Amino acid sequence: MERMDGVPPEGEGLKGGTHRRTDGQVGQWRGVFSPGGGLQPLLPPPGPPQPLPYFVRRSRLHNLPVYPRLRKSNRRLTELRHVEGDIWALERELRAFLGGRGGKEPEVQVNEVTGSLRFKGRWEGELREWLLQRGF
How many domains does the chain have? Predict the structure, then answer.
């Protein structure tokens, strides 16, 4: 149930609707509750989206799907999930981007069935930065 002040009830996640503003006009809101409290607006990236052969969906909590993993004997991996479309084109672009950061190109494992990429090493910050630059 929505309240008239435009704030969704507690316990609700992603919401949208209308509310009456203080000037008497009817406005619209759409946002997500943050863990610290309050409604955080969901804003689309600036400008029109680039036509790419792949798409990286955000997680259900609207975070970028980049996850650090630790395997046997301290093997550090970084996983990028929720990839749709041409996963091989994404792999080529990311390999070139990360290889241009200095050092050699990272080793990458592609899983077409689950739509995920695993990179050897810690690349969370670089992957998040690249995804945000691309408008994901």
Answer: 2
The answer to whether residues 106 and 99 touch, using CB atoms and an 8 Å cutoff, is yes
Phi, psi of 112 (to 5 degrees): -70, -30
Please return the burial class of 93, using the count of CB atoms within 10 Å of its CB with bins 0-12, 13-18 and 19+. Answer: middle
pLDDT in tens, 60-111: 988 999 999 998 888 999 999 999 999 999 999 999 999 888 778 889 999 9
**Contacting residues for 106 by C-beta, under 8 A, at least 6 apart:** 95, 98, 99, 119, 120, 121, 123
Cα→Cα distances 17→14, 61, 120, Å: 11, 19, 44
Structural domain of residue 120, as residue ranges?
54-134
Is 48 a domain residue?
Answer: no
Going edge to edge, which strands form the sheet with 75-80? 66-71, 75-80, 116-120, 108-111
Same domain, 119 and 93: yes
